[in-house]
Amino acid sequence: MSAGRMAVLSLGVGASLAGGLALRTADLGQAPWLVSRASGMVAFALLSASVVFGLLLSTRLARRLGSPRVVFEVHNFLSVLTLAFMGLHGGALLFDGFFAFTPLSLLVPFAGPYAPFWVGLGVIGAWLTALVAASSWMRGRFAYASWRRLHYLSFGAYVLALVHGMIAGSDTGLPGVAAMYIVSGSLVAGLVAARVLGRRAPAPRRQPGAAALRSRPERTPAAPGARRSPAA
Amino acid sequence: MGLSWLRVSLAATAIAAFGGTVVYLGGGLADDSHAASTGDSASSSTANARTSAKPKAAAKQSSARRSRGS
To answer: What is the DSSP code string of B36-50?
Structure first.
């Protein structure tokens, strides 16, 4: 990293810390609480969409919908946006005048002042989401099987986020929010079922000789008197 | 051709959804504060109506009282 970029980064971090400290002493009213609730809902919607797009890729339904490359790109970028809104969801609570959240209570599960268990599940879900995203960014450094096993943690992150939102969330009773949880859960459960059932289904029967034809680099005219395969 | 347009669209949609949710919830809170001021808790539109009696402020006041010996 160049010295210029380092200086800009240091300035940005310093300004953020100073701004954060100044905001903590200010009375922001209900704004942090509003921001935290709204960003939590948006983060859950984005996580749901990311999981759905990931399942579309793994169930090969993405090919029917269009370009798998676009679906993959959407899946990836939604996870980045999810992390950003998760950060905003937790970070806004630091400025809330009602609950005394500290950085430690946001990073360590079950250490918060409000509904410690259910909020703790959300903290674990956020850590898992970050871990899965980081493993995808460093995918080249992992063996495919290891990366794949690690990627399964995203299902755990999704379930934890769903439970956290439904129980610790204060807006679950709103019709729109309840509908979001129901639609998201149904979509993910349906796609997981499609994936599991799709794997258990028997492989399509190949026509006799098809494998032999695929194994040949090129078809050459058969010599007179040579034995021909049934499909040839 | 890159897919930067896709990323910009997704980010813009997420930010718009966030802004819309803040405005929606802000309207709900305004109703709540009105309900709290009128003492009509049944008309509160959200389950988390928070009055001005904040626990953190209350804790500060009680600790100040303790230090003053009251």
So the answer is: HHHT-GGG-SSTT--
Across the range B4-22, mean pLDDT stands at 93
At A228, list the tokens: 């021909």
| Residues of A in Cβ contact (< 8 Å) with B48 | 170-171
| Low pLDDT (below 50) residues in chain A | 206-232
State the pLDDT at residue A58.
87
Backbone angles phi, psi at B67, to 5 degrees: -70, -25
**Residues in B touching A171 (Cβ below 8 Å):** 25, 46-48
CB nearest A30 (choices: B7, B17, B29): B29
Give me the sign of the Cα torsion angle A213, A219, A221, A222: negative
| Residue A191: predicted pLDDT | 94
- The minimal CB distance from B56 to the residues A33, A39, A97 is found for A97
Interface contact A38-B11, CB threshold 8 A: no
Instruction: Please enumerate in sequence order all residues whose Cβ is within 8 A of that of A217, keeping only pairs 6 or more positions apart, or say none.
Output: none
Calpha distance A117→A109 (Å, rounded): 8
| DSSP category for residue B54 | -
b (16+ CB within 10 A) / e for B28-37: bbeebeebbe
